[in-house]
Amino acid sequence: MKEVKGGYYFKRDSAFDYNAGSLSSYGYVVMNDSFHQDSNAVTQSLGYSSGYIVAKYRYVNNQKDYYLQYFSSKYGSGTNIWAYAGSPAYNILNEFKNKY
Predict the structure, then answer these.
(1) Is the pTM of this model over 0.85?
(2) Mean pLDDT in order along the chain per 10 residues (100 residues)
């Protein structure tokens, strides 16, 4: 588990991993900070009423590819979140890239 000082906290959770042959992705639940560790605050800040915002990375052509997904539960499938410049999702994704 790693944190960004003064920023978001990324908690590793293998329930959000994806494995299919040579394609694997690794999931980290996004929390508001390392002290409060409130994933719901982040979820609501992106316009969802409940669930999880998950930062992920995978290797594509030997390079890391980063993205965000929304999950309504740990047992569902994820929906991609577009992280356009200046959006809260963009800020989350940039912090995640800087740490991982």
Answers:
(1) yes
(2) 64 94 92 91 94 95 94 91 93 95
